[in-house]
Amino acid sequence: MLSLHSVTKRYGALTALDDVSLDIARGEFFGLLGPNGAGKSTLMSLVAGLRAPNAGALTLDGVAITSADPSTRIALGLVPQSIALYEELSAEQNLRIFGELYGLRGTTLRQRVDGALEAAQLADRRRDPVKTFSGGMQRRLNLVAALLHRPKLLLCDEPTVGIDPQSRNAIFEYLERLNREGLTIIYSTHYMEEATRLCSRIAIIDHGRIHALGTLDELLTRLPFEEEIEFPAKPATVPFAAQLAAYGELAKGEGRHRFHPRADYPLSAFYALAESHALPPRLFTISRPSLEAVFLHLTGRNLRE
Ligand code: ADP
User: Fold this and answer.
1) pLDDT for 151
2) Best substitution site from 7, 20, 40, 41 to test ligand 1's pocket, by max atoms within 8 Å of Cβ?
3) Are 101 and 80 in contact (CB under 8 A)?
4) Is residue 305 over pLDDT 60?
5) Which pLDDT score, from 0 to 100, does residue 68 have?
6) Which carries the bigger pLDDT value, residue 93 or residue 81?
7) Number of domains composing the chain
């Protein structure tokens, strides 16, 4: 459905996207996972036709996406990272404006606005000005506004930043339902939990490049280790951690460290080393490595930094 061929986007001397190629099929829930500044919003804005690439090409159903062509904008919905609503106006007035921008009129407009208010769980607040809404309510309204014209592709640019868990969950469930009903979704996030829960395929993006792309399972098989061991970052574990780094990958966090032992470093050796530092086994939690470990392994960076 959507193809990017060797797309490069520069802002002056800064290369925000560097030779990115990507194919997304109809019906996918596709994740773009990367830290702030990775290039996710830039990629979204190129797909939405809001900016033009310096090199490369983008096509939607075989037709070139150009910033001059309004047909691109009709085919897709963009949920921008920053909330784009008129604060002084009510939820209903905001939706009417967005609907009219997309050419909706009369009964169709009224029905779509009503449906959107229901979907955002804001029907009872329809006449209240948006400035009286919580962050989560504004995010929900922002999302349904992008869907009024029934686009075939939805671009969600970090749509859950700064909201409460309840609204986050409501957004997840709504997006999952839309995807089940056939909507293709591209979802950018720096939360690996979101990519893990929502996305059928995930591209790991950093410094404008796609470092890996696949299903969660495919990404996990790229790791040279099969376990993740977590332990507390305490003064007592400092000399142990220093020695451990020779036997695998150690990701130091503020509260907890995560260690990924090399395949040839057995757990028995790990526990023997811990014992020699007088660290009891109960300090350690062993689990399957996460997407975060893939990110760290591929980019050398911690996603949460
Ligand atoms: P992300 O969405 O992953 O946080 P962005 O696409 O917003 O990343 O940014 C990628 C890089 O491009 C960053 O280094 C950012 O500072 C830079 N950038 C983004 N937009 C602009 C702009 N309009 N002008 C100059 N630099 C920009």
Assistant:
1) 92
2) 41
3) no
4) no
5) 65
6) 93
7) 2
Q: Is 41 in the pocket of ligand 1 (CB under 6 A)?
A: yes
6-23 residue pLDDT tens: 999 999 999 999 999 999
The domain that contains 236 carries what CATH number?
3.30.70
Q: What is the atom index within ligand 1 of the atom nearest the CA of 45?
A: 6
CA distances from 253 to 4, 36, 166, 302, 304 (A): 36, 18, 27, 9, 9
The tokens describing 206, both together, are 């950093």
- Token pair in block for residue 120: 């955002």
Q: What is the pLDDT, as a whole number, of residue 290?
A: 83
pLDDT at position 304: 61
Q: Is the CB of 80 under 6 A from ligand 1?
A: no
Specify the residue with its C-alpha closest to ligand 1, atom 23.
11
Predicted TM-score (pTM) of the model is 0.85
Asked, for residue 221, whether it belongs to a domain, the answer is no
Domain check: are 237 and 200 in the same one?
no
276 lines ligand 1 (CB under 6 A): no
CATH number at residue 111: 3.40.50.300
